[in-house]
Structure formats: structure tokens, C-alpha cells
Automatic annotation (TrEMBL):
Keywords: Acetylation, Disulfide bond, NADP. It holds the Pfam family NAD_binding_10. The keyword Disulfide bond applies. Monomer. Forms homodimers during oxidative stress. Interacts (via N-terminus) with elongation factor EEF1A1 (via middle-region); the interaction is direct and competes with EEF1A1 binding to guanyl-nucleotide exchange factor EEF1B2, thereby inhibiting GDP for GTP exchange and reactivation of EEF1A1. Interacts with nuclear transport receptors XPO4, IPO5/RANBP5, IPO7, IPO9 and KPNB1 as well as GCN1L1/GCN1 and LRPPRC probably through their HEAT repeats. Binds NCOA5/CIA. One of its GO terms (molecular function) is catalytic activity. This is Protein HTATIP2. GO terms for biological process: import into nucleus. The keyword Acetylation applies. GO terms for cellular component: cytoplasm. It comes from Microcaecilia unicolor.
């Protein structure tokens, strides 16, 4: 079942998603029995922390490792078995053991030009991400998931979209057994850090998203559910690109189960 082929949410889409929700639970159970391990890069960020929460809630991996530049503190007992690897991203080769032995990898790493400057943005969003993917591949990872962006294009004249496209393409060359690229539009979330441009953008997009729900934005929780649902689905596709519409569809399955 390919996320990319899902249409917009019509009645038939909802039926399909309901069926998928039941199937997803069965698939979760299947994955649990396989005792697979995963790692998350960027677990301190908005997507990463929500993804970690969802993975823990669904108990689909027998071992969960978060790889980041600082140690995180969790109050909740549910996080007690999470393994933390603190690495220096400027010397990632020295931390190759952190990337050893994970079946599935999720990369939610990223910064912005406003925060890190142009060179800093390229360093994190392209170089750190690619190096991490290389180490993960060398360490035995078979399914690599990249949170990229809507409009990613290595030929784009916009730096952000070009860098996202370049890293997508470079990771494809690593030849993972399975490589999933998520291309979400603007993430609708209550971000801890204050980002003025994002706040303005989100405010403008709220009314638009009622009319065109999948065009310009996506709730963060939907992205995370799509990542988890996709990870439990079997796929014979080596490379999957999930555009914003497909993320909405795939992320909706669990939402329907809860109703
Ligand atoms: N925001 C959007 O609307 C949007 C839309 C589409 C795609 N995306 C993409 O989706 C991905 C995740 O976005 P997000 O908003 O969830 O990210 P976020 O909240 O900004 O979190 C980014 C993560 O990257 C880490 N990071 C940043 N700079 C780093 C550095 N110099 N060294 C090591 N780690 C660093 C952060 O660690 P610390 O906590 O230690 O800083 C954090 O864990 C990004 O690639 C982003 O470009 C975002």
C-alpha cells in the first residue's frame, strides 16, 4: 500500500482510512513481534518529540534510541527505556557506534536560515543529515525516513528548497532497502520556540486550511501519525515520496480509529 497514491479525503477515502486503521493495528502487532529497533534524530524538536511520543505510545519498536546534541530529561515513566546518544555533529565519524544496529531511522533534524545563517542552515539540513544517513546505512539501518519539505527540489533557486532537494537526492544514492521522504507543507503546531514568520504564516493559513485542508499546511500530529503508520506498512517500493496530500491521508487513519 503506497501513501503516495491516496486521494483527498472523500467518503471513499474515509472508508479506506477506516479499513486502514484496523489494518494498521494488525500491522503494529506484526512489527512488535519483529523486535525491531529505531533511532530518531531531532527528538528535541517539534516533530521529533511528537514522533517519539507516538512511537512509545504504540510500542512498535523494542528499542528506541534518540540521537542529539544534548541530553533530554523526561519525567514520564513511559520514556524510561529510551536510550540517549549525545553526539557532536561536527565530528560524527567519532560517534559511528551511536548509529549502529538500528533497523529504522527517522530524521527530523533541521534549523532555519534566520536562526543559524545560510552556512549554518546548509551545515545542519544537508551535511549533518547526510552524514547521519551514511552512518546509519553503514550501521545496518534498512529503512530511513527523512522529514523534508513541500517543494523540495535540488534545482530550485530558493536555498531552503534546494538544500532539501539536494539532501533527498544524496540520501537516495545510499541505496537503503527502503527510503521514505516526507514532504510536509507548513507544520501547524504550538511551537515552544518563538518564530515570528512561522506564527504569522500559521495565522494566515488557519482559515485557508478549512477550504483547502491539504494544500498549504498540515497538523504536526498528522505528520507524525503518517510516519508511524507508514513505518508499519509493508512496501515493496524502495523509494517513497509522500507529498503533503498523502501525508494527510496516511496520517488520518489513526484519527478515525479514535472517533
Ligand atoms: N516548520 C515547518 O513548518 C516545516 C515544514 C516543512 C518541513 N519542515 C522540516 O521538518 C524538519 C523538522 O522541523 P521541526 O520544525 O520539527 O524542527 P525543530 O523543532 O526546529 O527541531 C529541529 C531539531 O534539529 C536539531 N538541531 C537544530 N540545529 C542543530 C545543530 N546545529 N546541531 C544539532 N542539532 C540541531 C534541534 O536540536 P536542539 O533542540 O538541540 O536545537 C531539534 O532537535 C526540519 O528539517 C524542517 O526543515 C519544517
Amino acid at each position: 500500500m503506497q501513501g503516495v497514491s491516496f486521494p483527498l479525503r472523500s467518503d471513499s477515502q474515509i472508508t479506506l482510512s477506516s479499513r486502514m486503521a484496523e489494518d494498521t493495528e494488525k500491522l503494529c502487532e506484526g512489527l512488535r513481534k519483529e523486535n525491531k529497533s529505531c533511532f530518531i534524530l531531532g527528538a528535541s524538536g517539534e516533530t521529533g518529540k511528537e514522533l517519539l511520543k507516538e512511537i512509545i505510545k504504540n510500542r512498535i519498536f523494542s528499542k528506541v534510541t534518540i540521537i542529539g546534541r544534548r541530553k533530554l530529561t523526561f519525567e514520564d515513566e513511559a520514556y524510561k527505556d529510551v536510550i540517549q546518544e549525545v553526539v557532536d555533529f561536527e565530528k560524527l565519524d567519532e560517534y559511528s557506534s551511536a548509529f549502529q544496529g538500528h533497523d529504522v531511522g527517522f530524521c527530523c533534524l533541521g534549523t532555519t536560515k534566520a536562526k543559524s545563517g545560510e552556512a549554518g542552515f546548509i551545515r545542519v539540513d544537508r551535511d549533518y543529515v547526510l552524514k547521519s544517513a551514511q552512518l546509519a546505512k553503514a550501521g545496518g539501518c534498512t529503512h530511513f525516513n527523512l522529514e523534508s519539505s513541500k517543494g523540495a527540489n535540488k534545482c530550485s533557486s530558493f536555498l531552503y528548497l534546494r538544500v532539501k532537494g539536494e539532501v533527498e537526492a544524496a540520501i537516495e544514492q545510499l541505496d537503503f532497502d527502503r527510503y521514505t521522504i516526507f514532504r510536509p507543507a507548513v507544520l501547524m503546531c504550538d511551537r515552544e520556540e518563538y518564530r515570528l514568520a512561522e506564527r504569522i504564516f500559521q495565522k494566515v493559513l488557519i482559515p485557508i486550511s478549512y477550504t483547502f485542508p491539504t494544500a498549504f499546511s498540515v497538523p504536526l500530529t498528522t505528520v507524525v501519525r503518517a510516519m508511524v503508520n507508514n513505518a508499519v506498512l509493508n512496501s515493496d517500493k524502495k523509494v517513497e515520496i509522500l507529498e503533503n496530500k498523502a501525508i494527510h491521508a496516511l496520517g488520518a487513519a489513526q484519527e478515525i480509529t479514535k472517533k
